[in-house]
Amino acid sequence: MEQLQALKQMMQMNRMAFDNSFNMMMSAFEQNKLMFNTFLTQSAGLPAEGKKAVEDWMKSYKKGCEEFKRMIDASYDAADDQLSKMDA
Fold first, then answer.
1. How many domains does the chain have?
2. What is the predicted pLDDT for the residue at 33?
3. Residue range(s) defining the domain that contains residue 70
4. Closest CA to 8 of 69, 86, 72, 71
């Protein structure tokens, strides 16, 4: 029983570490996005197609990160469910 409790605590700590790292990564992305948007609006030499391509790339990146987060959360939830079944 003690081993199962230790495993649960380890999973909780791992999940918290992932969540904190992911949140920091997304904060950095948002800051870079703001800085890059400023650059795009101030650069007159960049064609509209180029600006659109960069904006699409940023949207795709954010969507991919959010999907990755959902998959990781689902995996942690499944692991929690399995550990709860072992505890019963």
1. 1
2. 93
3. 2-87
4. 86
